[in-house]
Amino acid sequence: MNSTEIGYLGVRDLHALYRARKLSPVEVAEAVLARIEQVDPEVNAMMRVTPEHALEAARASEKVFSQRDTPRLLEGIPVTIKDLQHTKGVQTDFATAIFQGHVPDVDAPCVSRLLSAGGMMMGKTTSASEWGWKGVSHAVISGITHNPWGKGLNAGASSSGAGVAAACGYGPLHQGGDGAGSIRMPAHFSGVYGFKPTHGRVPNWPMSNNDLATHIGPLTRTVEDAALMTQAMAGPHPWDYTSLEAPPQDYAGQLKATSMKGRRIAYSRDLGHARVDPEVAELVEKAVKEFEAMGALVEEVTPAWGKLGPELARFFWPATFSGRISSLPEYEDRMDPGFVAMIKFASTFTTPQFMQMRLRRFDYVQQIHEFMEGYDFLLTPAVSVAAFPADRLQPEHWPQHAWDWLMWAEFSYPFNWSGSPAASIPCGFTPKGLPVGLQIVGRRFDDLGVLQASAAFEEARPWAQKRPPLAQ
Asked: Annotated catalytic, 66?
């Protein structure tokens, strides 16, 4: 078995091969490191590779399997960590020149849990620009992270490196973060599965400055791998006062414990306001029909709260980054021009204005939760467009703006604010061969339900065997 095939194996397959003594964790770590060395010059998904960490963990896991001890949940499984997440002793730049060369002295909780579960850290994946502010895979300090389905195309948002790593076979598990779609957008653009759990399900530290909108979750090629990774990261943690008290469920073990028959599903093609490219809309509509074929009761809706989102988003996205304005005098010439324009725009906001808008956002979120009481799931496009050149903020055929990339990503941020679980799952390819994602949103706390709905769709429309051209 060569490094390519090993890199595409899932958690269950790897554990079966370890138990059968047909592969060892050291062999897998070496194969994935070789895979990264081979492919990453084409895609630029890795900010840095950590072979010493990977091989040290691999040797420890090898002892577990050779001595037939009880393996941990992710024993000997390759993982990558997003460069916005603290990793002890491993450089973490937060995708900005301001922190370039920074080496944390502690792991973030999600990192320590992945490693404690037996994960082997292959390295840090690239992020999209300063602190992950935009939905395009281009950062000043790392350049373009290329979409594996097309050189030079956008791989989407701040977890872009994680999405590309998943698509290119850098092992099964890739940690991402989502403050306005930064797990779901890379999943959509790179043709993989991205799951944003309920807010607080996976502890987030350091606490983000975006007013409790950031969620930590997995990007993977299969729903089962995402379920296992979520289970490893989930659970309360004292460093995150918003973390949920409930311990993680056996998500992977319950994926097929229910069917979609009789489930009430809302479908919105545009949330009442969003522009969507026809090629994306067509694929999403076909995916919705798959749920009808599974026996779900699908109702097309135009939620009253949908049209309230854009004004709120154009206020809060700049506002929550405005604390970085003190860095402008020294670093402006080394920062993304769009980011600079955005935080300068936010400098006009006042504290009373922020608090008034916050009350409006709370009401908006309440409307979302009241709406979801009538449905098990809401289906929408994950993103309005397929991949476009990563040196642009907007596709050429869309309106242009100095910093507003949100216009083609109106479907994700509502569910960051509501704290709802949501996933992007591959649902087809455009005529140009670019992947498109279907978004599945659940009621708050129903992480298992979203994973189960995802697993049902995955079984009906499998995709994990598809490999992008830049990963060949």
From this structure: no
